[in-house]
Amino acid sequence: MLYHLFTYLDKAFDFPGAGMFNYISFRTGVAFILALILSTLFGRKIIDFLQRKQIGEIVRDLGLEGQMKKKGTPTMGGIIIIIAILVPTLLIANLTNIYILLMIITTVWLGAIGFLDDYIKVFRKNKEGLSGRFKIVGQVGLGLIVGLTLYLSPDVVIRENIEVKGETNRVEDVHYAKHDVKSTKSTIPFFKNNNLNYADAFKFMGEKSQIYGWIFFVLIVIFIVTAVSNGANMTDGLDGLATGSSAIVGVILGILAYVSGNVNYAGYLNIMYIPGTGEMLVFAGAFIGATIGFLWYNAFPAQVFMGDTGSLTIGGIIAVFAIAIRKELLIPILCGVFLVENLSVMLQVGYFKYTKKRYGEGRRIFKMAPLHHHYQKPGDGSIPALIQNPKTALPESKIVIRFWIIGLILGALTIITLKIR
After folding, report:
1. In 10 A of CB 107, how many CB atoms?
2. What is the secondary structure of 388-402 as a DSSP string?
3. Backbone region of residue 76 per phi and psi (left: phi > 0; alpha: psi in -120 to 50; beta: other values)
4. Which end of the chain has fewer CB atoms at under 10 Å, N or C?
């Protein structure tokens, strides 16, 4: 809103200072600061409201150190993150940008699903919350909206990078096609030209290969949105773990959006240029500010939990953001923490069912899943599991910080992959 107002004042009246809103870097900084203020100052009021309404966490006794002390801690704090993201975005971002509109829809859509899940848990005292089937339907629905929008919108285009090679067959320069095109291309790490065209898998279909490529792309979008939002949900089990990890991912995605939307940086990195994605840096600024501000209260010992209202939302935001800038194939690296948390649960459940069917008794791989809880249990043999290390239980804060460090390493590796091919 303010962006459009100041743009009008700058063009119509040459209003002093209004031209600053033309710079993405300036608006990103404003969005970050505003989100940080909202999540810290107004976040305190929301936490007090949750405490007055006795909207507290329902804790199951899993035998983890300090776990029962968390009982009654205000939950549904993801509302703070959602407000701190949406308000700066609506005020500072270009609301005619298709990518910004997709991010707003994603935030509201998954925020509503997460809120409903938390509402059932807290007010109806149902520990299971919203039916898993309903969650999946909601996630698939969002995936369809995102995928079809990227397919149908005329504003979603790319400009293909064309390598100019010298006499030694080395790339000396990168040019771009004269016209923007609809494409099913995406960035793929470690490959020579750094591009993957989904339509290439359907070359045998002839002229229809592009259509089938888009259908495959939409299915990929649905899978990624579901997987990453659930991964973030799984990771939200220790104070500050999901929040800090998401802030790190947000910084990397903001960098990727900026270079993808800037023809000069995209040319230097030899990646596809995607017009309009630079604007997503403003949303990334709000996202980073919101998660860091929320971390003020969510860090150990947590004064508030984000609940599914926050975890499903931030996971969905990360997924759709990466998809929009055609970096979805980097998610296994960038969101490695979420991926491992998800896999640990799948492996644990799968192995337990397999061994129960074969031996009549279920066995475990980890002392406990998701993986972060494995480190909270002592490896003294009291819990039958294939992996007993570490032998002693680690403090919660140490586990969280180590996961953050791993997230930073993965984030740096994600950036590096753009030049490793």
Report:
1. 24
2. --SSSPPPHHHHHHH
3. left
4. N
- The residue with tokens 């095109």 is 181
Sketch the domain layout of the chain as residue ranges.
20-159+197-332
What is the C-alpha to C-alpha distance for residues 147 and 219, in angstroms, rounded to an integer? Answer: 8
In whole angstroms, give the CA distance from residue 358 to residue 87. 54
Lookup result for tokens 């339907």: 137
pLDDT tops 60 at residue 307: yes
Residue with tokens 């771009």: 176
Backbone φ, ψ for residue 221 (5° rounding)? -60, -45
The distance of Cα 172 from the centroid of its chain, to the nearest Å, equals: 35
Q: Percentages helix, strand, coil for the chain, rounded to the nearest 5?
A: 65, 5, 30
Give the Cβ contact number of residue 166 at 10 Å: 9
- Residues 99-129 have pLDDT tens digits of 999 999 999 999 999 999 999 988 887 777 8
Closest CA to 257 of 67, 66, 18, 28: 28
> Which residue in 53, 175, 173, 186 sits closest to 122, CA to CA?
53
pTM of the model: 0.93
> How far apart, in whole angstroms, are the C-alpha atoms of residue 396 and residue 131?
30
How far is residue 369 CA from its own chain's centroid?
Answer: 21
Contact assessment for residue 403 and residue 337, using Cβ atoms and an 8 Å cutoff: yes
Residue 222 sits at the vertex; the CA angle it makes with 219 and 223, to the nearest 5 degrees, is 90
